[in-house]
Design brief:
mainly beta; 5% helix
Length: 391
C-alpha cells in the first residue's frame, strides 16, 4: 500500500510538472556587437581597441492566475585582440557582482584575455492571492521614477552615457506587496554574501489621477535612507522628482542628500524631448578635488550637478534615433551619445551606438591626472554596431 501511494505521488508530481512545462513560454534574446574604443588625444598613450561582445538571455516563463515562475540563463562573452594588456583598465570586466547566490561560472582559461561567463540571469517564483503578492528569487526590480539619472535605483548600472558596457545584473530578492484601490505597500530585501551590500526597504505608493507618489524608508548599504519621489502628468508634459537623504552610522562617513528632476514631452508622434537634472552632496563643486574624494557607493559621478537633455526622433515606422548629452555643470565638460535602431522585423533589430567624451585636462570628461597612481583617468570614445534577435 505504501508503495502504491508513493507511485501515485510520483505520477501526480510528474503530471503537474509536465503541465507546467507544457505552459512554459520559451524565449531567447541574443545580441552581437562589434565595438571600437579608443582614448582621446589627451591620454599619455593612445589605445585603439576593436572587440566583439555577445550576450544571450534564454529561458522561459510560466504564468497562471496566481503563480508565476521564470528561469533565464545568461551568457556573456568578450573577444579581445591578443595584444591587449591584461592589467589595462580600458578593458571591461564581465565578472558578475557578488550576490547571495554565486551561480555563475567562467568558461575557458583564467589566463585567457577573452572573457566568457555563464550565469543565471533570472530565477524566481511569485504567488498572488487577493490583494497580496509574494516574489522570491533573482529578478529585476524597479525603484524610483527617474529614467536616466536615478537617485534611488543603485541596483543597476546608471548613466548609460558613460563608457563601458554598463551591464545589468539582477539582484537576489524577496518582495512582498499589498495593494488596494490606489494604494500599494511594498516591503523588499536584497540579499548579498556581504552585509554591507544588503538592502531592506519599505515603500508606500499612491496612484492618483494626475499624481503618483512614493515614500521610501530603507536600511541601505549599512546606512539609513529616507526618500520621496513623484510623477505629475500635465498637458505640458510629465514631470518627475526623486530625493534621498542618507544617514551614516559610521562617524567617519559623511551624511548626504541627493535629488533629481525630470521632464519629458512628446511634441509629435515622431519627436519627443526628455531632460533630467541631478544633484548630489557627495559630489564636489571644485574640479581640483575630483581625484581626492573618498569612495562612496552613493556617488556614481564626480561632480555635484549634472544635466541630461535627450531628443528622440522617429524617422519611420522602422527607424528611431536618440541624441543625448550628459553635461557636467561644474566643469562644463560633457559626454555626447547617439543610439539609432532599425527594425528589420518583429524579431530582428540592428543598432548603432556612439559615445563621445568632450573636455580638457582637469575636467571629468576630459582627462584627470591621479597623483597617487601617476596615471590618467579618462572616458573612452565608443562606436559600436550590433544586431539583436528575439525568438
Amino acid at each position: 500500500m505504501r508503495k502504491v501511494k508513493s507511485h501515485l505521488i510520483f505520477v501526480l508530481l510528474l503530471t503537474s510538472s509536465s503541465q507546467v512545462f507544457a505552459d512554459y513560454n520559451l524565449e531567447s534574446e541574443n545580441t552581437l556587437q562589434g565595438i571600437h574604443r579608443n582614448f582621446p588625444s589627451g591620454s599619455s598613450r593612445k589605445t585603439h581597441l576593436v572587440e566583439s561582445f555577445f550576450e544571450s538571455r534564454s529561458g522561459g516563463r510560466y504564468s497562471s492566475d496566481d503563480l508565476q515562475v521564470e528561469t533565464k540563463f545568461l551568457l556573456r562573452s568578450i573577444q579581445s585582440p591578443s595584444n591587449r594588456d591584461q592589467d589595462d583598465s580600458s578593458f571591461s570586466d564581465l565578472t558578475p557582482p557578488r550576490r547571495l547566490l554565486k551561480l555563475y561560472t567562467k568558461l575557458g582559461s583564467d589566463k585567457s584575455l577573452n572573457q566568457t561567463f555563464l550565469d543565471v540571469g533570472n530565477l524566481w517564483g511569485g504567488y498572488s492571492k487577493d490583494n497580496w503578492q509574494f516574489t522570491l528569487g533573482r529578478r529585476a526590480i524597479g525603484i524610483g521614477v527617474l529614467k536616466t539619472l536615478p537617485v534611488w535605483n543603485r541596483l543597476y548600472p546608471v548613466v548609460p552615457t558613460l563608457s563601458g558596457y554598463m551591464l545589468p545584473n539582477n539582484p537576489d530578492i524577496v518582495d512582498i506587496r499589498w495593494g488596494r484601490e490606489s494604494w500599494t505597500i511594498a516591503g523588499y530585501s536584497i540579499f548579498s554574501q556581504y552585509y554591507d551590500d544588503a538592502i531592506s526597504a519599505i515603500e508606500v505608493i499612491h496612484y492618483g489621477e494626475k499624481i503618483e507618489s512614493h515614500l521610501l524608508v530603507s536600511h541601505w548599504w549599512e546606512r539609513l535612507a529616507l526618500g520621496y519621489s513623484g510623477v505629475v502628468d500635465t498637458s505640458k508634459g510629465i514631470f518627475r522628482f526623486e530625493s534621498l537623504g542618507i544617514k551614516s552610522k559610521d562617524l567617519e562617513d559623511q551624511d548626504g542628500f541627493q535629488f533629481g528632476l525630470g521632464w519629458e514631452r512628446a511634441f509629435t508622434p515622431k519627436f519627443s524631448v526628455q531632460t533630467e537634472y541631478y544633484h548630489s552632496s557627495f559630489g564636489t563643486s571644485r574640479p581640483k578635488n575630483y581625484v581626492y574624494q573618498d569612495p562612496n557607493p552613493f556617488r556614481t559621478l564626480l561632480a555635484s550637478d549634472y544635466l541630461y537633455p535627450k531628443l528622440s526622433y522617429k524617422f519611420s515606422d522602422f527607424m528611431t534615433s536618440d541624441f543625448g548629452t550628459l553635461v557636467n555643470l561644474v566643469d562644463e565638460s560633457f559626454m555626447f551619445t547617439n543610439e539609432t535602431t532599425y527594425s528589420l522585423s518583429d524579431q530582428l533589430d540592428v543598432f548603432g551606438l556612439i559615445k563621445k567624451p568632450i573636455g580638457q585636462k582637469g575636467q571629468e570628461f576630459g582627462y584627470l591626472n591621479v597623483p597617487v597612481t601617476r596615471q590618467n583617468f579618462e572616458y573612452v570614445e565608443w562606436v559600436s554596431v550590433g544586431i539583436k534577435m528575439t525568438i
